[in-house]
## 1
Amino acid sequence: MKTIGYAAFSTDAVMAPYHFERRALRPNDVAIEILFCGVCHSDLHTVNGDWGPQPYPLIPGHEIVGRVQAVGSAVVHYKEGDRVAVGCLVDSCQQCDQCEKHAEQYCRTGITPTYGAPDRVDGVITQGGYSKHIVVREEFVLRIPENMDLAKAAPILCAGITTYSPLRTWQVGRGSRVGVVGLGGLGHMAVKLAHAMGAEVTVISRSDQKKAQAIAMGAKAMLISSDTAAMNAAASAFDLIIDTVPVKHDVSIYTPLLDVDGTLVIVGQVGPLNELMTIPLIMGRRRIAGSLIGGIAETQEVLNFCAEHDVYPDCEMIRMDQINEAFSRLKEGDLARRFVIDMASLNPN
Ligand code: NAP
Ligand code: ZN
């Protein structure tokens, strides 16, 4: 199937139209017309080459929402017209212990991400959601709940699941004290989800610029990371902190904020951090952990949770040709919401 997307052609990350082909349907494939795609900071890291060399031309995008256009002969769960979604992964071995327990993101053989990796069958490089169409095997397609607004759902597929998964793993519920570092795409979903789970949420930000937005999302307070007196006063105040900062930084300013046995979960920076101060860890049996997106079943769970609890990402709709501008804004980090591309703005020719 001939289609079009916006690709990066080198690490300078200037995105431009790119005509390419989606594979012919295999028996277990679903062909999707993409209606909306969220813009994740990971898209920017990837096309910039922050995580190593990339197979250009590369089409990013892993917060994909659309409608089923056609299905392969063996597909049982989807039919033409269904409202569906695709997140950060499009294949895994489906056989290892991690896949068996629905933690495909930790597949022992490695996942096939939605863009930038060879397809497990034909070796063709996967291309993401900044495009008109995608073809994905049935097991990796999600269903959009009936009452969910398609235009608002996209960021749940990465920002939502990436923060929902640690909130569930560390059993956040009524009375939990949760800190969220960085109020961007992931951070704003962490606040909304933790609040909906009954937690008391504090946003830890670089300035108070986003305070009104944080409170409107359900946060109880905002802590400014450069305000030493306030940070000292908040010692031992949290059971769980979710750190979404997208660059190398100092986590040792956040660990003293954890209570005894508390955990700081890093979901942001993928790579080195500043030198670690172990004193807060040792003195309070505090932990530092990491977490990667979520499995397919858990991604369906967060979609259903959002529909049930009326939790929606704050989306700023953009046209496909505004993507380079959107990437510049993401780099600045001043956005307490998600850019979402309205794919109707991408001319198929
Ligand atoms: P984003 O929208 O750009 O938000 C990041 C936030 O971090 C900013 O809004 C800002 O919040 C804060 N920040 C930015 N630069 C900073 C700096 N230099 N120092 C301290 N804080 C800074 O990004 P995102 O889409 O949420 O993604 C965040 C990170 O998560 C990215 O690195 C992305 O690759 C990663 N990620 C990981 C997973 C996973 O599975 N673990 C999944 C998706 C994304 P304040 O203004 O409030 O300080
Ligand atoms: Zn993402």
## 2
Amino acid sequence: DDTVARIAAGEVVERPASAVKELVENSLDADASTIDVTVDAGGTELVRVADDGRGMSEADVRAAVREHTTSKIDGLDDIESGVTTLGFRGEALHTIGSVSRLTIRSRPQDGDDAGTELVYEGGEVESVEPAGCPAGTTVEVADLFYNTPARRKFLKTTATEFAHVNRIVTRYALANPDVAVSLTHDGREVFSTTGQGDLQAAVLAVYGREVAAAMIPVEADGDELPPGPLEGVSGLVSHPETNRASREYLATYVNDRAVTADAVREGIMGAYGTQLGSDRYPFVVLFHDAPGEAVDVNVHPRKREVRFDDDDAVRRQVDAAVESALLDHGL
Ligand code: ADP
Ligand code: MG
């Protein structure tokens, strides 16, 4: 029933940034090499994600907005063995579409199918028509929460909503330097990565020259780390002189998922010691590898917070990895 769907939608879609996250994950799952994210008014008026991924046939587009349909899971076995694709619940498009005006335009890369445009409003398919469009998929989410005024009232200012969007797109752009990711807000391009560079190039595109120039590589394999669950720590951390008064620039990943973890943050901050002022944080893009069973992802699924079976050991491992990188630079 509609009401149930709208309530459920609130759990998945909290704000425009949640829609951005689901759409970008779908584009990555579709093996896109270009992902263009466009938002208006912080995403409250419009979120558009355009990709050059696999694309969908008309039947695929129709199926994509149906409840609990996903092309990414075969059965329970997949869940238990750990899914490799980012999305697996098969409900994002359906739920986003129940609280917005959703338009999907898509054309498959393979074959000579025409494109399809499907319009979905408040949980109903309004129209499905052939459309001329490039191979790949464009999803537009307009007027988020137009039919749930109570939830719309909870949205913050344009600046705050855009900050959430920016943080999400930044995380994905940094984790996927081989994908060209762009972000445009109210007609102004905020950043775009080339999709042809390494992590350093992605940092340059996203944060600019000053920050990119301050980055120090971190590279520690399991045997170089103190004992603990982490099998590797790698990425970039900034010289302590380049810092900000916000944790927002700590982009941390566990097994390539953008997550936060207290142990990781404390390890990073411990490595800098007193080199940062109080309430100052470095720029960090740091990837952590750990066996799946050492990571508890159910702490706060929506906020993407994880814990480890041995948080103390992880803190020591991250501290050691970052400290040795800083030491190599005489810090
Ligand atoms: P999930 O990602 O969990 O499967 P979604 O509701 O996000 O569920 O998407 C439903 C389905 O629509 C996906 O399984 C996929 O087959 C298709 N789909 C969604 N977005 C795209 C895209 N950008 N490119 C190709 N297929 C897509
Ligand atoms: Mg999805």
